[in-house]
Amino acid sequence: MNPPLARALVIEDDPSWQQILAEILADCGLTVETAESLEAAIRLLKAQPHRLAVVDLSLSPADHNNTDGLRVLEAVRKLDPGCHAILLTGFATVELAVASLTEHGVFSFLRKESFQRGQFRELVYRALASAPQLATPGLSPVSKAIGPSPAKPASLPTHTHLNTGRALVVEDDAGWRSILEELLSDSGFQVRGCSSFGDALGFLRREKFDLAVVDLSLNGTITSPEPKIPSAELDGYQLLATTRASGVPTIVVSGITSPEEIQRAYAEQSIFAYLEKQAFERAAFRRLVEEARKAGRAENELAALTEREREVLELLSQGLTNKEIAEKLVITTNTVKRHLKAIFEKLDVHTRSGAAAKAIGEK
Questions:
Q1: Which of 219, 209, 227, 203 is nearest to 276 (CA)?
Q2: What strand order describes the sheet that includes 250-254?
Q3: Burial of 313 (0-12, 13-18, 19+ CB in 10 A)
Q4: Distance, CA of 181 to CA of 33 (rounded, Å)
Q5: What are phi and psi of 38, to 5 degrees?
Q6: What is the pLDDT of residues 127-159, one digit of tens each?
């Protein structure tokens, strides 16, 4: 029987932050519990031992002076002393950081405004690698029932697509750029990130990319669902013409949600996918990245075909027989067979239906 996964507790009143932290901790192989208040956190601390707690300083969205998070830290020390605590806050001061590290015994202190997923993940690994804090005599026995944890949990997911392509991220918001770069790196891409039209255009002209992820607005002014400037003047939109001409599958991740702009991006620039930032999901983005990767590979395979082989493949995908293809192209059936053999070899398929599927997939 496999040993139970170590537990992590997220104490955060913002649902968005709850989701972000819980996802990262789960990716690190931890069983995650969440609490929105001091009272809920105390109940969970009493019920089960935890290896790690991530605590928000303020647990009242209506009161920016709320410091219930500090009371949670005290509860962690008393009720679950084997648990390392990380304090995460958007209301940071130097004094608070020093106090949390010295008086409350937190493992580390992070500011929300400079939060980076990769940095947080490495911090989690360091906390799991360090020895649990020693239990104080007289505390609840359940607090002492915490075993050691490896430097990285055995259940940490591994990525099989290592060094399988190069990706360009064009995003002027540093937080979003960091998120997208990390997700693409996790998917095995070597990532080049940039924040402006000029940088992106230069990279596209100097280097070859297998995927591009582009924000339509690169000047930070588009904050409403309806853009205030025409699409032709959006820097990111202009880049789509370049990625299309270069044959780079492109995913748009943008705060612009206008149906007209989305339709225009698909129709005029043949983008691979469009994701709205307001509804962004990491899992959905990863799926699209894999689909784009496969589409790019298929396009490269089709690019290896001669013009005549493309004509034969097009007719084959329409369901025509060898004889009908020969009649259409005014060639012999033996010539059709030779073209089909070359097509099958270049596309690494063994059947007519397999070749047709790749041809249809390009469209």
A1: 227
A2: 189-194, 165-170, 211-214, 250-254, 273-276
A3: buried
A4: 27
A5: -60, -45
A6: 887 655 544 433 333 333 333 333 333 333 434
